[in-house]
Amino acid sequence: MIEITLQGNFIQNTTNASSLVDAMKVETSLSVSIWIHPLIWDFFVTFNNTVCGNIIAVFGIFGNIINIIVFYKQGYEDSVNITLTALAVSDIGALLTVLMFNEMLNPWFLKADLPILQTDFISMLAFFPHNYFIRVCGLITAFASCERCLCVLVPLKVKQIVTKRFSVIVNICIFFIMVLDLFPVYYVVYFDWMFIPQLNKSIIASHFRQNPYNIFSISYFVTDVFIPYFTFFTIILSNIIIAIKLKSRSEWLNSVSHQNTNKEKFVSNKEKKVVLMLTVVSVIFIVCLIPQSAILTAVSQVPGLGNGGIYFDLAMLCYSFAYLMEAVCSSVNIVVYYKMSSKYRETIRSMAFIQCKMKFN
User: 3-class DSSP state for residue 344?
Assistant: First the structure.
């Protein structure tokens, strides 16, 4: 942790509300943690982020690049490939920002004698961009769940409803609309020099153009509470409908058909595999993403957990675990696709065969 204690009151050095908030934030951000021992904090943050997080993120970036290549090889006649490609792109963005977050959160960076307030730079350069990509991932996953749900509910009409053009437009709109998530923060906050009398030096820290709390309260509710839980609700509901519909359909086929028993059994087993794959994907996403949503909900309810709060070190420790799980979520898709999609495996193997053939030739 940052082992600097600023004594005194910055109120005497401020002339308006914005600078008062900035000064109080610097004072608390640079204070010694009294909630977590520095060695414990350093160990878990270093292990979670600098070691495990970076390894998983690098693996995930290469894995998602392979996913994009595979879906390109398969073609985009199926709208699902368009959505999965968009998901891979957003996962790469999430993993790149995780790498930046991990490098900036390591104890050596935080303890370095730099003319900046490190926590502010982490928030603006890594934290908020990462949240943007995670929200995009969630909405794309929710859209894919709804698309699969329509395939089960109205299989004869789904091709007319969810066309290639429709999928492209929806996925592009998700990327552009979610940019609005970043606008309030980057509009209100800016970086500038701030003189610290106790240290007799100036540092670069974030300042506010105006009172930010009204803007942030609305923005945080929409992006950190409504969108994540709406995403979870949509994914869970869609998969429940899929599971119920496939189960009822399987029972109906088994009850009305008396001729080709082997064929009936094959259809039933195939449907069970689809339900299992959807359940695995949904469980991985929700289990890996819900911790950060829970932390952000807690931050909105407990001001001390926010940047500069008295519990900020505890929040950052929780973020290190949450970001590790998000890195796993954005990296594990290649494993899920390979294990549960025969078409994906065939494409991977054909690509590997072509590469080996070119190498020996």
Answer: helix
Amino acid at 291: P
Do 302 and 70 contact (CB within 8 A), yes or no? no
Reduced to 3 states (helix: H, G, I; strand: E, B; else coil), residue 190 is: strand
Q: What three-state secondary structure class fits 196?
A: strand
For the chain, give the percent of residues with pLDDT over 70: 77
Query: Buried b vs exposed e over 126-138: b needs ≥16 C-beta within 10 Å?
Result: bbbbbbbbbbbbb
Tokens describing residue 211: 């009172």
Tens of pLDDT along 292-327? 888 888 887 777 777 667 777 888 788 888 889 999
Confidence of residue 65 (pLDDT cuts 50, 70, 90): very high
CA angle 60, 66, 70 (to 5 degrees): 140
CA distances (Å), origin 245, targets 154, 178, 239, 248, 251? 11, 32, 10, 5, 10
Question: What pLDDT digit, counting tens, does each position of 132-152 carry?
Answer: 999 999 999 999 888 888 887
User: For residue 239, what are its two tokens?
Assistant: 């998969």
